Amino acid sequence: MRQPILILGHNYATQFIDIYNQYTKLFNPEQFDVTVAYLTGEPDEAVKRRTLAQNVLFLNTPKTGTRGLKMAVVKQLLALCREKQFQIVICHRYKPTYIMMWIAQFLPISALIFVMHELGTMTSLRRQLLIAVLRRKNMLFAGVSNAVRDDLRDTLWCVPNDRIATLYNMIDIELTEPQLLSRTEARKALNLPDEAFVFGNLARLAPNKNQTSLIQAFACVKKSYPLAKLIILGEGELGDSLKKQAQNSGFGHDIIFSGFVPEGFRYMKAFDCFVLSSTQEAFGRVLLEAMVARLPIIATTVHGIPEVVAHAGTLVPPDKADKLAAAMKDMCALTPTDREKLGTQAYEHARIAFSIPAFQRQFWQLPLLAALKD
């Protein structure tokens, strides 16, 4: 009989579907029966098709139903857990963790894994006290990078360090690589000229992504490299101010704001270099997408980014437009062959360190899970 597994997520935002699929692939379907449950969001056939688990549930909890301890949500999931008798439950983000910790007080579950995707998730004293009360020996907390793991260890004083691990986000190279458009196709779709040297940024237009420094750096680069262009794929609260900054830089025509582009990773090969200028980044999964596209990478030395990039890219201090500009100029000065070598190096780094096989080795080495695999 196959062991039942539950992966409980808050919503079906695109990046989280990919993450739930990453976890689903841990489990051999001949040995395990995986259910992915989305806490919020109406049933969606496209999401269901994209989700790789054998069973997909849409709990469709209203936003008001996820605030505080809402018994309706707990009862719904408690009934599901009683029916399925899950052996392993993996929760992503705090709210699913919070709900499942209550359920675990009433049902035996062999292993509960709570994965946090942001820094500062457990800084609230209320959350710390709740976990101190509800924590059990069959529970393990994980961060998506060592930076998040260490943040959890600093704040969850009630949890032993050996019960707080790192479970990196990974990328399914076999699934992702065939979806990438060619350079010609991607540039045509984004209306980018073939002769331009294109710096690409794929991120929300938000303070922590710090496109302000990126635009400042690009304006400096543009003076030395007239064919340079910067394209930013994304939308967000800083859209208007960033567009105004771009116009005031004097190079507004060469700084392109594409807005939100569905499946933006597919257009990565339109870029000559990928730049991530963040001042806060728990992991930076978009860096893996750039690596699979075989792009040279420039990124900042914040939180989880150095763990992801390691030796496979150029790292600069955050919020230092002059340092960022220098790295971008160096990239422009390289020959196409040299940039291709950097892209290949990045690809191999992703394949070795952040592929699904690498994650399988990392996951099943956890002491809490070793006995359950046999």
CATH superfamily of the largest domain: Glycogen Phosphorylase B
Order of helices and strands: EHEHEHEHEHEHEHHEHEHEEHEHEHHHH
Percentage of residues in strands: 15-25%
Q: Percent helix among the residues?
A: 40-55%
What global shape is seen? elongated
* CATH fold descriptor of the largest domain: Rossmann fold
Rg? 22 Å
Low-confidence stretches: none
CATH class of the largest domain reads Alpha Beta
Distance between the termini: 13 Å
Number of domains: 2
CATH architecture of the largest domain: 3-Layer(aba) Sandwich
Tell me the strand order in the biggest sheet. Answer: 3-2-1-4-5-6-7
> Would you tell me the structural class of the helices and strands?
alpha/beta
How many beta-strand segments? 13
Describe the protein in words.
The structure is a single chain. Helix 3 crosses helix 4, helix 9 packs across helix 13 and helix 11 packs across helix 14. With 374 residues, this protein is of the alpha/beta class. It is built from 16 helices and 13 strands. Helix 1 links the parallel strand 1 and strand 2. The protein folds into two domains: 187 residues, 3-Layer(aba) Sandwich (Rossmann fold); 180 residues, 3-Layer(aba) Sandwich (Rossmann fold). The strands form two sheets. The protein has a seven-stranded parallel beta sheet, with helices on both faces.
